[in-house]
Automatic annotation (TrEMBL):
Enzyme's top EC category: transferase
Residues involved in S-adenosyl-L-methionine binding: G157, E158, S189, S212, L213, H214, N288
Name of the protein in question: Probable dual-specificity RNA methyltransferase RlmN
EC number: 2.1.1.192
More info: Reaction proceeds by a ping-pong mechanism involving intermediate methylation of a conserved cysteine residue.
Catalytic activity: adenosine(2503) in 23S rRNA + 2 reduced [2Fe-2S]-[ferredoxin] + 2 S-adenosyl-L-methionine = 2-methyladenosine(2503) in 23S rRNA + 5'-deoxyadenosine + L-methionine + 2 oxidized [2Fe-2S]-[ferredoxin] + S-adenosyl-L-homocysteine; adenosine(37) in tRNA + 2 reduced [2Fe-2S]-[ferredoxin] + 2 S-adenosyl-L-methionine = 2-methyladenosine(37) in tRNA + 5'-deoxyadenosine + L-methionine + 2 oxidized [2Fe-2S]-[ferredoxin] + S-adenosyl-L-homocysteine
Keywords from the named record: 4Fe-4S, Cytoplasm, Disulfide bond, Iron, Iron-sulfur, Metal-binding, Methyltransferase, rRNA processing, S-adenosyl-L-methionine, Transferase, tRNA processing
GO cellular component: cytoplasm
């Protein structure tokens, strides 16, 4: 059985054609699905015989809700979903004045090994399919009863480690036959896989690219991000410049501030030199402390001193709002604590 959400409209049309059905049925089926009708039997403008054919070839892969947490501090909601094969993934919905934003996962687990991240503790279990990424948005919209207008690929997983499925996802999420969310309302975050940054640049999409940099020197980056052993900061910055030249889009650099590691004004000065003259923006993230590592959140003073240095060097800087600290909102924390608390094997 195939998850029908893994198919784009052209592929569904092709399926209809090769199954002796009219191609226009593909658009009708797709309209139902994206309107929230997730049973073929309820698609009442589709002939019974076609519905039966669909039923025996496809399933509509909407995940099951396992747990839901709403932050008492703000209206952030975190969902733990079970996929068709029982694997667990999580996503976070954040409410802003300008609309609802969702942070979705792109893999079950992650193999990148960043020390500050709970998603990677059990390694990579598997890639998510295109449909499994789309369905997180669809299910979340259904649960909150409102449209989601911004998507961030910054949950569990490294999006560029699942490149093909992510690109197909971007296409469907953006399509008016899909979720119809503008490319400019989508942010894709990578820990810095250089070849893929360049490949993505060549696609000339209007999506925002965010780089998880988290250090201004290779030596410090290597301490928390094993990917730094493969790609130097210089190579990443080169790839970013290539991206900016190709797309004329501003890059966001994510920088998680960790006490006694990368939060001094000297680090801020080094970062300023690195980013000098680039079309970019720095997003400072007070690191989430997780039980499995010994990283400590930088103090508020250190965070604002860091910001001051960057701004004095004409680098646009923001401090990320801390969302849902009371609900383990950082990536991978909820899945991890659920697996532990319920003694579920990882990778079920
Ligand atoms: S921060 Fe992102 S890339 Fe790094 S381990 Fe976590 S999910 Fe993977």
């Amino acid at each position: 059985m195939t998850n029908i959400l893994d198919l784009n409209l052209a592929e569904l049309k092709q399926w209809m054609k090769s199954n002796s059905e009219s191609e226009f049925r593909a658009k009708q089926v797709s309209d139902w699905i994206y309107k929230g009708i997730w049973k073929f039997e309820n698609m009442n403008n589709i002939p019974q015989a076609t519905r039966e054919k669909l039923q025996s070839n496809f399933y509509i892969g909407i995940p099951e809700l396992v747990e839901e947490y709403t932050s008492k501090i703000n209206d952030t909601r975190k969902y733990l979903f079970a996929l068709n094969d029982g694997n667990l993934i999580e996503c976070v919905v954040m409410k802003y004045k300008h609309g609802n934003s969702i942070c979705i996962s792109t893999q079950v687990g992650c193999r990148m090994g960043c020390k500050f991240c709970a998603s990677t503790i059990g390694g990579l279990i598997r890639n998510l399919t295109t449909g499994e990424m789309l369905s997180q948005i669809m299910k979340a919209q259904h649960l909150i009863g409102e449209r989601i207008s911004n998507v961030v690929l910054m949950g569990s997983g490294e999006p560029f480690d699942n490149f093909e499925n992510v690109i197909k996802f971007l296409d469907i999420v953006n399509s008016e036959n899909g979720l119809n969310i503008g490319q400019r309302h989508i942010t894709i975050s990578t820990c810095g896989i250089v070849e893929k940054i360049k490949e993505f640049a060549d696609m000339d999409m209007q999506t925002t690219l965010a780089i998880s940099l988290h250090a201004a020197t290779d030596e410090i980056r290597m301490r928390s991000m094993p990917i730094a052993n493969k790609y130097s900061i210089a190579e990443i910055i080169d790839a970013c410049k290539y991206y900016i030249n190709k797309t004329n889009r501003r890059i966001t650099f994510e920088y998680a501030l960790v006490a006694d590691l990368n939060d001094t004004t000297r680090d801020a000065e080094k970062l300023s030199v690195l980013l000098e003259g680039m079309l970019c923006h720095v997003n400072l993230i007070p690191v989430n402390e997780i039980k499995e590592n010994e990283l400590k959140r930088a103090s508020n003073d250190a965070i604002s001193r860091f910001k001051d240095v960057l701004e004095a060097n004409n680098i646009q800087t923001t401090i990320r709002r801390e969302m849902g600290l009371d609900i383990n909102a950082a990536c991978g924390q909820l899945r991890r604590s659920y697996i532990k608390g319920n003694k579920v094997n990882e990778g079920v």
